[in-house]
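Hey, can you fold this one?
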Amino acid sequence: MNSAPQRVVSADMTDLDQFSRAQRDGSAEHIQLGAGRLRLCMRYADFGAVRVQVNAVDNEYLARAQFHPDRWAMFIDIGEQPGTSLINGNIMGREGAMLFGPGGELHARVTRGQAWCMLTFAIEPIAGLLDRALGPLPGGSLFAPHLLGRAPGLARLSRDLSAVLFADPGRLDAGSAGAAVADSVVAQLGAALETLAPRSACRAQQRQVRLVAGAVDLLEASLDRPVYTASVAGHLGVGVRTLNEAFRAVYGTSLHQWLRLRRLALARRWLRDAEGPTLIKQIALDAGFWHFGRFASAYRRMYGETPSDTLAARTRPVGFVSAVCAPPSSATVRAGR
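Sure. Predicted structure:
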């Protein structure tokens, strides 16, 4: 297999907006969920037909992403202990994997101390594999709870790649290492796909994911005005209970809490914007917070600093430093045995 010129990137981030912009295989948005400062390590290696991204985080966040229409993707939990993070309502565990077809949507709640490996694949080498095996449909996703247990070669390879990207990323940017990695990953993926179960078991869960995606689209378009859960549910043709159950299944939180976190994230983005408004009260109102004291208190609990602290620091660079660093101490990468 011919591999495009390799490119390996190492970055240490403290800003989820910059993490969103750093994604190369689709569009993404991240919202901080856990209180306090956040540190996230990202490693990215481009081998042409195969790309590998590894993340380790010491705080919690919510994520929404859509993959490019020319890439398949797979997510694997590589933490030392199987985590409690949710991807499209599923906990990966030690043996599970989440697969996405081209253009598929991801909704995730990532918990403190988690480490993830994401593999993405160009359509051409994967299409032939899917002719012989059952995988996610374009635009969709498929949870395979025992995939790595049935395909231990893929599990070892993913975790070994992740460990090397954290410890010695330059090794993968030398010689013919990239072509060898791409060939190995595609071969191991082919063996793994042959173990997949029918899609029918995922239909109910996919309905919840689509429902949450529709609700988030409505909420994003309504951030400048009051939004009521009942009106969102009515627009989507479901009951309030059904909608909240879908949010809890996918994100582990209610629609109301998601909207509050989203508004806090917007306020933080505007406070950091060097060309943005300078009045904290106006920023709070624009983000939907009419009680300034409660806004300031909630902001400080979430981000570990006051709104005025963030505003005062907006001229200083934040969050993205090219570096080679270890993952956060609370997120240990598990290497293959």
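The first strand starts at residue 7 and ends at 13. Let me know if you want another pass with a different chain boundary.
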